[in-house]
Structure to design on (613 residues):
C-alpha cells in the first residue's frame, strides 16, 4: 500500500487541493452556520406560551378616537358574551375578571427594588390555563399568591435594568429570585401578600392571578363593586377559520396580533437563511467540482501507472483506494474544521442572543452536526463512485 | 488451471483477411501446464495481441479462449484479477515497470499483493542476474537490458500455472539470457507450470515441446 501511494501521489497538485479545501470549508461553513443560526434563533419567535394553548383568542373591543370621545363602552355586556358563545367556531368562552380594589406592588430582585407601582390583576378560569394545578392553587386566606407576569416585564428588566445595575439576568429557571410584594387595601382592610411568580407569558399583557383568589379578594376588599369585562378569552376549533375574522370585523372586535407578527418574522428569517444556505451550497458544489476535476486530472496523468498496476494483478478496488482515502481525509478534515469554527462562532452569537432573550430554550449543535454528517457522507459517496468509475474506465482501456 | 485453449480465434483486425496462414489464428491451439512452448512470429502477425488475449486486457476477437473449460470472455473483473495474481505470470515486451520506483520497489509492489517470495529469495535472483548493485536505482535510470531482468523477477514473485514471456531476451547478451532462462525455468519447474515464450527471431535456447508459428 505504501508503494502504491508513493506511485500514485505523483502529479498531485497541492494548489488545486488547497483551493478545494478552502472553497469547501467556506461553503460548508456558510451552510452549517445558516442552519445552526436558524435553529438557534427560531425559538425566539416561535416559543410557545406554555400557559396558553395556541388556539385561544384574546378578544377586545377596538379603541378608536371615536369611542374615546363618545365614551361608548369598551367593555363587553352579557348579551355580547352570549352571542359570541353561540357562534359555531367557539368551543368555550370566558371573560377576564379584573380587580375592583387598589393594588400596590413592589417587585425586586436580590433585595433591589426595580418596580414600585399601583397595578391591577386579572384572572381567567383555570380551564384556560395550562399550568400544573399544584402551582396555581390558592387557598382562601393564604398570604402567598401564584402569579404569571407578562414577559415584557422581564425583558424590560433584563435589557435595561440588569445590565446597568450589574444584576443577574432572569430566565425561566431563575424565577424564584423575584420578590413580588403585593399591598391591597379596600373595604377597611389593608393586607400584604407575597406573589409567587410561576412563569412568564408573552401572550397576555397582564398580571394573572388564580380565579379563586380573584373571586375571594374582590368579595373581601370591594364587595359592592362590579365592572364589566373588557377582554374575553375564547377557545376556537380552527383559528384560521374565516368566519372568525368576519365576525370580529362585523362586531368591531380585535384579537392580539403578536402571533401574526411572529409568523411574519419567522417567514422572513426562513427566507434569508434559505438564501444564505443556498449560497453556501453553491460554493460547496463548486468546490466539489474542483475536487472532482483535480481527481480526474490526477487519474488521467497517472493512467499508465494505474493500468500497469491493474495488469500486474492489482484489483480496481485496490488501485482506487488511495484516491478514495485522499478525498475522504480531505472531506473529514474540512468538516472537522467547519464544526470547530462553527462551535466558536455559535458561542459568540449565543452570548448575544441570551442577553437579549434570557428565556430562550437551550438548543444544541446536534442538528447541524447531523446535517454535516449527511452532507459528508453524501459528498464522499459521490467521490468514491466517481473515482471507482474512472479506474474502471482504465480497466476497460477507455482512457 | 491445466490448459489454455485458443479455439478458432480471429482478432477483429484480421477478420477481413481471407487467407490467414497461422498455426494459432483460426485454428485450435492448446497449451498444457508443465510444457514448454515457443510462439514464433514476424512483426505484425499479432504477437502482442495473442498475449493480451491470454491476460485478458483485450477482447477484440471472434472465437473462444478457454482456461480448462471456462470461457474467458465471460470472466468478471474479479476473475481476471485472480488470474493475474495467482495463475498467469507475464513478462511484458514493453516491461511496464514504474520508472519512479527503484528496482527493488518494482518487484516489491508485486510481492506486496502475492506475499509469495521472501526478501532473501528476491535478492538471490538479483544476484544471479547480475543487477544486485541496482537494487536501489530508479528503474527509469537503468538500461533496457537491466530493466528486462527486473521485469522478469517481478513476473516470478507470484504463484502461476503458466508463465508468458513476450520477447524476454531482446536486449540481452548470451550470458545474461542464459541466466534469465535458467531462473525462469527453475521457477516454472518448481511450480510445475507451463512456459510460453514468444519471439520474432532471437529466442531463448531451450528444449521446446512445441513451436507454434503465428
Amino acid at each position: 500500500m505504501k508503494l502504491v501511494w508513493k506511485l500514485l501521489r505523483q502529479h498531485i497538485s497541492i494548489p488545486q487541493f488547497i483551493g478545494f479545501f478552502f472553497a469547501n470549508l467556506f461553503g460548508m461553513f456558510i451552510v452549517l452556520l445558516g442552519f445552526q443560526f436558524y435553529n438557534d434563533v427560531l425559538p425566539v419567535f416561535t416559543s410557545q406560551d406554555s400557559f396558553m394553548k395556541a388556539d385561544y383568542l384574546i378578544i377586545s373591543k377596538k379603541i378608536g378616537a371615536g369611542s374615546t370621545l363618545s365614551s361608548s363602552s369598551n367593555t363587553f355586556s352579557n348579551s355580547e358574551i352570549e352571542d359570541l358563545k353561540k357562534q359555531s367556531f367557539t368551543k368555550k368562552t370566558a371573560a377576564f375578571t379584573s380587580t375592583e380594589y387598589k393594588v400596590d406592588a413592589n417587585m425586586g430582585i436580590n433585595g433591589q427594588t426595580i418596580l414600585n407601582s399601583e397595578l391591577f390583576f386579572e384572572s381567567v378560569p383555570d380551564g384556560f390555563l395550562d399550568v400544573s394545578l399544584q402551582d396555581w392553587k390558592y387557598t382562601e386566606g393564604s398570604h402567598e399568591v401564584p402569579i404569571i407576569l407578562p414577559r415584557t416585564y422581564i425583558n424590560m428588566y433584563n435589557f435595561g435594568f440588569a445590565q446597568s445595575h450589574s444584576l443577574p439576568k432572569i430566565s425561566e429557571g431563575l424565577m424564584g429570585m423575584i420578590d413580588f410584594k403585593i399591598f391591597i387595601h379596600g373595604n377597611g382592610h389593608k393586607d400584604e401578600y407575597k406573589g409567587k411568580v410561576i412563569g412568564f407569558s408573552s401572550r397576555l399583557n397582564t398580571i394573572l392571578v388564580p380565579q379563586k383568589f380573584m373571586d375571594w379578594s374582590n368579595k373581601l376588599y370591594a364587595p359592592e363593586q362590579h365592572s364589566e369585562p373588557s377582554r374575553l378569552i375564547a377557545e376556537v376549533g380552527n383559528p384560521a377559520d374565516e368566519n372568525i375574522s368576519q365576525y370580529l370585523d362585523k362586531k368591531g372586535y380585535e384579537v392580539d396580533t403578536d402571533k401574526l407578527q411572529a409568523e411574519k418574522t419567522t417567514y422572513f428569517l426562513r427566507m434569508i437563511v434559505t438564501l444564505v444556505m443556498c449560497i453556501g451550497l453553491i460554493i460547496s458544489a463548486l468546490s466539489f467540482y474542483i475536487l472532482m476535476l483535480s481527481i480526474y486530472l490526477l487519474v488521467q496523468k497517472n493512467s499508465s501507472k494505474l493500468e500497469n498496476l491493474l495488469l500486474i494483478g492489482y484489483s480496481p478496488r485496490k488501485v482506487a483506494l488511495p484516491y478514495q482515502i485522499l478525498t475522504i481525509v480531505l472531506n473529514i478534515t474540512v468538516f472537522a474544521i467547519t464544526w470547530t469554527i462553527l462551535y466558536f462562532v455559535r458561542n459568540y452569537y449565543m452570548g448575544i442572543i441570551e442577553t437579549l432573550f434570557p428565556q430562550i430554550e437551550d438548543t444544541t449543535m446536534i442538528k447541524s452536526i447531523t446535517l454535516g454528517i449527511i452532507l459528508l457522507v453524501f459528498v464522499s459517496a459521490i467521490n468514491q463512485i466517481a473515482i471507482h468509475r474512472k479506474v474502471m474506465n482504465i480497466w476497460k482501456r477507455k482512457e | 488451471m491445466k490448459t489454455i485453449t485458443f479455439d478458432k480465434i480471429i482478432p477483429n483486425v484480421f477478420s477481413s483477411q481471407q487467407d490467414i496462414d497461422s498455426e494459432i489464428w483460426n485454428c485450435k491451439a492448446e497449451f498444457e501446464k508443465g510444457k514448454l512452448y515457443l510462439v514464433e512470429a514476424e512483426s505484425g502477425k499479432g504477437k502482442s495481441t495473442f498475449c493480451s488475449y491470454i491476460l485478458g486486457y483485450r477482447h477484440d476477437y471472434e472465437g473462444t479462449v478457454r482456461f480448462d473449460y471456462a470461457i474467458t470472455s465471460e470472466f468478471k473483473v474479479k476473475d481476471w484479477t485472480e488470474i493475474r495474481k495467482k495463475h498467469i505470470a507475464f513478462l511484458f515486451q514493453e516491461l511496464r515497470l514504474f520508472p519512479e520506483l527503484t528496482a527493488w520497489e518494482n518487484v516489491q509492489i508485486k510481492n506486496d499483493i502475492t506475499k509469495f517470495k521472501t526478501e532473501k529469495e528476491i535478492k538471490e535472483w538479483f544476484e544471479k542476474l547480475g543487477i544486485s548493485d541496482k537494487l536501489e536505482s530508479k528503474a527509469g535510470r537503468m538500461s533496457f537490458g537491466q530493466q528486462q531482468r527486473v521485469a522478469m523477477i517481478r513476473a516470478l514473485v507470484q504463484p502461476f500455472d503458466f508463465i508468458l514471456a513476450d520477447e524476454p531476451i531482446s536486449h540481452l547478451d548470451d550470458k545474461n539470457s542464459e541466466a534469465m532462462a535458467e531462473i525462469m525455468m527453475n521457477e516454472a519447474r518448481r511450480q510445475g507450470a507451463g512456459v510460453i515464450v514468444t519471439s520474432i527471431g532471437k529466442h531463448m535456447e531451450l528444449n521446446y515441446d512445441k513451436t507454434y508459428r503465428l
Observations:
- The radius of gyration of chain B is 17 Å.
- Helices of chain B lie at 47-55, 77-87, 103-114, 119-128, 144-156, 174-191.
- Chain B has one domain: 3-213.
- Chain B has a mean pLDDT of 92.
